[in-house]
Amino acid sequence: MKCVWDCHRLLLRGFYNYGYFLAKHPIWFLVIPAVVCAGLAVGFIRYDPENDIETLYAPEDSRAVKDRDLVVATFPDLSGDNFDPFSANRLVAQGIVIFRSKGPRAVLTDPVLEELKTFYREAMSLTITKSGKNYTYNDLCVRREGACAVDGDFVFSPYFISMLQMGTVTYPVWATMAALDLNLYLSDVNVTADGFLRSAGSIKFAFPLRQDNPEVEKLSLDWELKFADFMKRANFSTVEYSYAISQSLSLELDKGTSGDILYFSLTFTLMITYASIVSSGGDCVSTRALLANAGVLAALLGIMGAFGLITLVGVKFVNIVGVMPFLTLGIGVDDMFLLMGTWSETTALKDISVEERIGHVFKKAGIGITITSVTDFLAFAVGSMSVFRSVKNFCIYTGVGVLLCYICNATFFGACLTFHGRRVYASRHTITCKPVPKSRAELSREGHKCCYVCMCGGTVPKGPNDDQSLCEKGPKYALTKFILWKPMRFVILLIFAGYLGVSVWGCTQLRQGLDLKDLVLTSSYFHKYQIWDTKDFGVKLPISFVTTTTKDYRSETTLKDIQDLFTKAQEDSTIDPLIDSCWLLNLAKTPYYNTTSDDAFFSGLRDFLSNNPRFYNDIVFGPDNMTITASRCQVYSYKVTDSNDQANLMTRMREVADDSPADVFAYHPAFVYFEQYVSVLPSTLQTVGVTLAVMFLVTCIFLPHPLIVVIVMVQVVMIVTGIFGFMALWGLTLSSVTMIHLIMSVGFSVDFCAHVCTAYIVSEERTREDRSRDAIVHASGPIFNGGISSIIGVVVLLFTESYIFQSFFKIMLLVIGFGVLHAVFLIPVILSFIGPATHVDLEDDSPSQYSPSKHNGHSQVEPVRAISNGKVEQSNGGSHAGVTNGGSHAAVTNGSSTHVNKAFENDASLGYLPADTPPTPISNL
Q1: Are 671 and 340 within 8 A, CB to CB?
Q2: Counting Cβ atoms within 10 Å, is residue 567 exposed (0-12), middle (13-18) or buried (19+)?
Q3: Higher pLDDT residue, 840 or 915?
Q4: Rounded CA Rg of the chain
Q5: Can you give the pTM of this predicted structure?
Q6: What residues form DSSP beta bridges with 496?
């Protein structure tokens, strides 16, 4: 343990020396970081946003991605001549529109169908031009039986209309049209008692596009944009509509954060205003209002430098990074408040230079701002290893932003603090910098007006209260009276026990998943489409069971394995037993199935395929056309809209496939997106767990008492549990978006708790209760003001339409709220009961390079080393003076005489006593 404390003393000496050196050469520490950050900001010219949904929100290198790569490489894309949606290798590029009739269930009436026919013809005739050549939908559409395969256009066929009028269209499956599932195209239906369709309220059309070669795919994407523009301007008299294209989510994603600059400008203004108000105490000489603005500017420099640097090295900007400036600004201002609060405490130190004061500031606050920044940086460093690209890039941007804000506070703001100190101790005006000869009291006695007295009167502060505002002094005075009142301590423990119980219950209610509509603005056309599509149609999936190994399909064993596979899959409650698609099972029911020889089998198979060409998509023949190297069959699900249900369906179908002797794997193109619902919980728990482990190591380094480390980590776990639990109660889900906030919350939780525990452990008060009170006095003001500044940093996000911004605000409010409440209310109470009884003095025995004993002729007084059980121990082997009932600390300053020095009230933790403090005989106590 002694080794740990010695390391801390060495660290404190380093902070003191750094502060002293900075104050000796402030101009360099002011100019260099400003120039460097401004230079780095130029790197933002390489701004290259990433808005591909799969890249951002699907886990990297997932099983679904590997399965898709295998399917795409194995099965040819026949969308140009034999399209079958059951057998799509990838998600189909398409334009989609949903129409709802304005009359009740009138979408299949003649007036509506006539208007929809006009729309259909206009959509088919949409033209794009490329290299001087015109392309219509007919040139780019997927084809089946020589015609464009438009989903839903069967309602225009005379056959369907006549069958509907006769009341012979069966619902939901229309067997006449090759078992067509009408649920995919019609909703809000009226059906007779015996299952025949009468009418419908909405209809869905899809215009799928070819993707069978890169050139055609590019043209198809251009046609989609043309279709979206056409639908944006469309006007209908009999129906309402919503629409989307396959690119909609990617295109609309960035619009959700397009107001970043405006919101950040407002936040920056609010932050400067709040910092100025908090720091407006004192008079025209001692006030730190303008200094606070420099602290906000330091954070802004760090943000600019981080954006430029990370963009310059090629890390793509993702939309979630839009919240980074709001978060980082709050963290930077927190550190600024801690430095300013420590500066106020040094005002009580007499007859020392500004350089020595800055040394003391960094000696006391250096640990605080370092542990804040290191924990946050390491939390984001762990998050940068996430399997989600959006999480990874956000953590890289924000981690570097936190680091640069820390550097700017330690350099740029430190230099500003030095200039502030020089001005104050030269008794110069905060605005004009002219000497202020008289105090407010002197001007008032001379009869000057109140305004003149306030604006022009001032003096050098003599103690910490002289330049602090009510926002800084208020919390410590109020809370020390309230929290440590013995009945209130037990009430606080009961309240937090109830909080923990509610949090644990809330964790059991937390849902996983990310609704795609939440990624775009509520005013977006895609948001409207997603709501309509979910309500009217939902998601129905043809799930393929794929094998890529050569098999003997003549074998009865192979046929039985496939039959058993389908039987097992269709036992699942989400699988429709009436609809499936399997070439082998269908072949086995026909006269073409002949297993007497290879020639007979493949001859019959070719005849079967000529009559059922859709199955060509599901079979890959070997070079000799006498073997099958890969094949697939499909089962079909009911509506599966909820993301948890989609993930569970994927998991169950994989289990069915993995347990089958048929050697198959389950696949659907949407599985790539479903993977995030499966991966997000284990990934979050793993990342949060690793982050907690890293935070434990950091607290062990910066907090040298094992009991304090345990208390901090228990509080962090309680805060994180509360965030998980209250997320569920607030309607938030666990997703790749909220996962970012949970990673961040661990670092923030350590910040709040560590400030109070550090103040407790270095307090020189004698009892646990007094030391807890001392911790509140030293830490409550910075914690409250830092928490409020962090909330101000994100409060404007509440008024945006973006789900990403709003969820960030909600979780930040939980993180800050729970962090402040635990740090200011619960931890002091716990420490007052079970806190360490021994004072840990981290002062260095030997004078540092820039210690007070080497400057201005001031002597250094030996610090008290340990206080335990009422005894005070001398550092150099002198005798011990016991104190049994006094409030002062006894110390022996030499080997021959014994006396008591009164502890320096305003800055006890520094370990130095004023040079003019007279010794107090023990007999006088």
Answers
A1: no
A2: exposed
A3: 840
A4: 36
A5: 0.76
A6: none
